[in-house]
Design goal:
The protein is mostly beta strands. The chain has a domain of 32 residues. The chain has no helices and five strands. Strands 1-2-3-4-5 form a five-stranded antiparallel sheet, with no helix packed on it. The relative contact order is 0.19.
Length: 84
Amino acid sequence: MINMVQPKARYMRRLDADRYLSVSIWAGRTHPEDEIIRVQIRKRNQQDWQTESDLSIYRTAGGVYTELKPREQSPSQAPSAAPR
């Protein structure tokens, strides 16, 4: 059985007919008390989903915020599942 990592919290909102805003909070990998806050705007494009904008912020347990470098995704890595 595969153990899937889930976000600590998630919020999604439809912006218009084709676009969605999502905010998710993930536990830090090396320091679980830290958090990664990810904000995305995704658009429905034919049968796939395309990320229009993506922002990730790292928050330490001490309250220090740092913007993370954007992730580069090849077409094979891009998620194609619809937002829930």
